[in-house]
Amino acid sequence: MWLDEADGFAEIFKGYLPYYLLVALPIFIIMSPVNPVAASHEFSVYRMQHYDLHTVPHGCRSASFNLEGRSLTSWSTSRHCVVARVQDISIEQFMEIRSKAGALLLVLPKNDTVLTPEEKEHIQLLEMAMIQQEVNAPVYFARWTPDFEDILRDLQHSFITDDKSGTALEAMLNTVSSNGYQIVVSASTPQKLDSKPVTLHGKLAGRSGSAQTIVIAAHYDSSAVAPELSQGADSNASGAVAVLELARIFSRLYSTAAVRGGPSILFALTSIGHSLNYFSAKKWLEEQLDSTDASLLQDVSFVMCLDSISSSPSMTMHVSKPPKPGGAAHSIKSRLGVSINHKKINLADELLAWQHERFSIRRMTAFTLSSLQSHKDPSRSTVLDTPSEAAIRNLVQNIATTARALASHVYNLTDEINDEDAALYDDALGVDEASVRLWYKYLSSQARAPQIVTTSPPTAGVTGALERALSRYMDVTVSAHAVDKREPEYTLYGPTKASLFVYSVKPAVFDLILTLAIVAYLSVVYFAIQLFPRFYEEYAKLVTGKAKVH
Fold first, then answer.
1. What Rg, from alpha-carbon coordinates, does the chain have?
2. Which residues cross the membrane (predicted)?
3. d(CA 44, CA 447)
């Protein structure tokens, strides 16, 4: 009975099975458990800085690419996009990638608070090296995600080079079995941005008859290797917050004529800092000093610039010219009890060291208060400049120290005051820690690179928020500055961010071997079908002891 059923099965193999096979294979593929969605990913990525300063190009020049992803140890040609953790790549490796690779994608640390001091310093120095020169290949940064971690792990264990393989066969098998990734960024061609820097300033008038003015200034932008990642908590959200808090404190003291100080106090916030040579301060000074009505800065006692004052509870006074004994700057220095760092202005340098140098060039007595010991400190321009509780405590303490020293100078107070006056003194100069914390966290949560703060309307974004905050204490003037289009001191370029697509693929060798395997499989199936009747006859003869009669 079963032999008769087998005869029908043999007839199927003779004529119809190849056609059924063509239908069955696609069905099996469709029913495969492999999820095609898992083979592709989309990420938000942030493009490296792209700007010109005094016609000298800085940063990457390209934006789009479609390349095969490789790790730091397996890339070799311009057809590869190198994917690595930012803490793993050395400056020497970056220089090689800059000149030979097709693109670079760096993944930021999962949590920068767990990085060692050596790792943080390495990342900061890498950022400085990357920005100093132009890079023709597209360079992007991405925040850490579990999917990126999987991609990094696959790339590190794939594409083992010949020198790291035990045998040629091992290298070939690893290449065939590895998972590859095609990395694509479709972004617009880099174009110039319409930059409109501004300066916010407001004045608390002193007693009538006194013409002297004290200027308290800070820039509120930030700098890092990628504009969209430039949060700048210490540099220089701390300086901007300090200006706001000092404005609040002295607006109370200057609110009534009875306790108003002699000199006027002018508060200024500029939108471009050290990354673009304090362009806003320069243009603002030109407008105020070179105009027919130069009364705003007619008799400046001194200019106090605040920059990066939350990284340490102590501060340093940076000066271009040592303060003369008996002068206003020397008085502030003595009341602050800080050390002095003297650095002469070098106009041949591409960048000025500190903001006060812009005022010193215009023959004003100026200095910068900072927790940093040097203007070359890499922490001034890094993606790792994020807020912390320790930084907030340092900022509150340094604001309180500065307020006391400034008030002591304005009112010409000495240490010999009675307890009752001391209590009133401390109450009037009390720092609103809640306000400082709120503004510090707000500013350090915003990307404030010049590409962002100078291309937004003055009434929007960070600039608008600072203008409204300063307006609570005094009348504020918004001064917009024009950039010379024929000979610009700087030029900014976009885009600053893009979408990155990662597709899981197999190498070309895998496709070749897979094709050969399919051909071999189909050949075996074909000959099995053709020879099955003969096999069946031999099997039937063996079972029944006689040949099958057709």
1. 34
2. 20-39, 508-529
3. 15
